[in-house]
Amino acid sequence: MATGTVTDLNAPGTGAPGADAGARAISDNGVIAGPGGNGHGFVYQNGQATDLNTLIAAGSGFTLGTANGINSNGVIVGNATSNSTGQTFGYELTPA
Predict the structure, then answer these.
(1) pLDDT for 17-45, tens place per residue?
(2) Distances from the Cα of 62 to the Cαs of 14, 35, 55, 59, 75, in angstroms?
(3) Quick one: how far is CA 95 from the chain centroid?
(4) Quick check: 9 pLDDT over 90?
(5) Please, what's the b/e burial string for 31-54 (b: 16 or more CB within 10 A of its CB; e: otherwise)?
(6) Per mean pLDDT, which range of 6-10, 57-61, 64-68 is the poorest?
(7) Full 3-state SS string of the chain
(8) 83 vs 88: CA distance, rounded Å
């Protein structure tokens, strides 16, 4: 039998009925990325989950909806939506 520890990531938007989040990727450094329960991508590191939309400029016109991958440099890829057109596209979020 395998043993391990389950950790609640407290992803943004969880806690409400039907507000499920997921862990889609983990970097070599142990940073986790995925979709939050609020429909936004999130990153979890050092015991803290952060909505990716708080890491881009306010009023950018985009919503980072999922986070599907993260590499050892902290670069995150996922899907975003244009707030004005509703068009969905891929994004790359690079740490500053």
Answers:
(1) 667 888 999 999 999 999 988 889 999 99
(2) 21, 15, 12, 8, 18
(3) 13
(4) no
(5) bbbbbbbbbbbbbbeeeebbbbbe
(6) 6-10
(7) CCCCCCCCCCCCCCCCCCCCCCCCEECCCCCEEEECCCCCEEEEECCEEEEHHHHCCCCCCEEECCCCEECCCCCEEEEEEECCCCCEEEEEECCC
(8) 10
**In the chain, pLDDT over 90 holds for what percent of residues?**
71
Alpha-carbon dihedral sign for residues 56, 63, 82, 78: positive
Name the residue among 28, 57, 27, 32 with its Cα closest to residue 42.
32
Query: The tokens of 4 are what?
Result: 């391990």
What mean pLDDT is predicted for residues 68-85?
96
Tokens of 40: 């936004």
